[in-house]
Design goal:
By secondary structure, the chain is mainly α. It has ten helices and two strands; from the N terminus they run ααααααααααββ. A two-stranded antiparallel sheet has the order 1-2. A hairpin with a 6-residue loop joins β1 and β2. The protein starts with 10 loop residues before the first helix and ends with a strand.
Length: about 280
């Protein structure tokens, strides 16, 4: 079951996922039902211990124990892998290991994507002329143009295994929401222009999920509001840094000629948005 920590802030990020996990290889070994059950039991034992450690605030120990659970879990059990990796991300958030939290959440989402792929937007090749025009304007009814993709044998086997385990697409979506929330928070904490953009994309995706709980929806909406000015600030800061480096490079090239970038003045044309350059040798 989900385990809550004693902290009230960031509640969703601190709620562990209760179901168990490693990484799939193209030809992952499939064990006999008896062997699989034994490995899964061992993995779940480690996971339960890690949940307890997390609940007591021993995040480093919990992280190590989740790794043990991942090490013994069959590599083709994507749902269990996704749950464990989402819990790993929760530990890393507590430890302020932001990039590691992003990576763990992305691995969790990748496992879920193999079980229940999100709808992909149609490509230009799959649209009729009229639909292509609507796509350029931003379709209001996305379901009318979604592409129905074939399910290969491997994916079909995974979906069947999910059904046999007693899990549903609702369970998958619940873990997906947690992983997205954790990745978005970690990206926000990193705070670069690129990671803030990625966080905004995650929060927008979450805002469009009907399964998102009311409290989490409020948090997501607040995060989107707070991200807007931070994005502008990060963009301006990084653009300024980039221009500073370009100016330094330009000065290094021009110096042998007795010139600097200050000799070149750029004036923006407000109508066209373009720039004109003037050379001032006296500067």
């Amino acid at each position: 079951m989900a385990r809550e920590t004693s902290e009230s802030a960031g509640k969703q990020y601190d709620t562990l996922d209760s179901d168990s996990p490693t990484e799939e290889t193209p030809l992952a070994e499939h064990f006999s039902p008896e062997e699989e059950a034994t490995l899964l039991e061992e993995s779940n034992t480690h996971k339960s211990a890690a949940n307890t450690q997390f609940g007591h605030g021993h995040y480093t120990d919990a992280l190590s124990t989740y790794d043990k659970a991942l090490a013994v879990c069959p590599a083709y059990l994507d749902y269990e892998l996704a749950v464990l990796r989402s819990n790993v991300a929760a530990c890393q958030l507590k430890l302020q290991e932001w990039q590691a939290a992003v990576t763990a959440a992305e691995q969790s989402l990748a496992n879920l994507e193999r079980l229940d792929p999100l709808p992909k937007p149609p490509s230009e090749d799959t649209l009729e002329d009229g639909e292509r025009g609507r796509a350029g304007q931003g379709r209001e009814d996305k379901t009318s143009t979604e592409v129905v993709e074939e399910v290969d044998d491997q994916t079909a086997a995974r979906i069947e295994a999910l059904a046999k385990s007693g899990r549903t697409r609702v369970d998958v979506q619940r873990i997906r929401i947690k992983a997205l929330l954790r990745r978005a928070r970690a990206q926000t904490e990193i705070g670069s222009w690129a990671t803030l953009q990625s966080a905004e994309e995650d929060y927008k995706q979450l805002a469009g999920m009907a399964e998102l709980q009311a409290t989490d929806r409020k948090s997501v909406e607040r995060a989107l509001r707070e991200l807007a000015p931070r994005l502008e600030e990060a963009k301006g800061r990084e653009m300024g840094e980039m221009m500073g480096k370009l100016k330094e490079l330009g000065n290094g090239i021009l110096k042998p000629f007795g010139l600097s970038t200050d000799n070149f003045q750029f004036t923006k044309d407000e109508k066209s948005g373009g720039y004109s350059m003037n050379f001032n040798q006296n500067r």
